[in-house]
Amino acid sequence: MEKGxxxxxxxxxxxxxxxxxPVQQAPTSFQNQTTVIVxxxxxxxxxxxxxxxxxxxxxxxxLEYETTTKTHICAAILxxxxxxxxxxxxxxxxxxxxxxxxxPNCGSYIGTYRK
Length: 115
Known about the structure:
The N and C termini lie far apart (about 90 Å). The chain is built from two helices and five strands. A three-stranded antiparallel sheet has the order 3-4-5, with no helix packed on it. Strands 1-2 form a two-stranded antiparallel sheet. The radius of gyration is 34 Å and the shape is elongated. The protein is about 15% helix and about 20% strand. By secondary structure, the chain is of the alpha+beta class. A hairpin with a 6-residue loop joins strand 4 and strand 5 (about 110-115).
C-alpha cells in the first residue's frame, strides 16, 4: 500500500486574516503648481553680459574653450596637405573650438557657442 502526499483538508485550514481597509482621505486643498522652463542663454564667441539663471546676478560670462571633433578634423586636414608644422594651430586658435560660458560668481554653466 503506497502512501501519497497528505490530503489537504479545507475544513481545518486557518481562515485568512482580515485586514482593515485604509481610510482614504480626500485632499483638503489644491495647491497651484507653477512650471518654470529654463532655456539656455543666447551666447556668442565673446564674453556676454547677462543675468545668471542660478545666482540672479548681472555678470560678464567666463569662457572656457573646448576642443571638439571639428578641431581634430581641421588638424587632420592640415596634416594631409603636408602642413604638419601647422597642425597645432587649430588647438591654439579659438576659431576651431567651442566656447563654454560660465558664471564667474557661482560657477554654473550658462551655455555653449558652437561654430
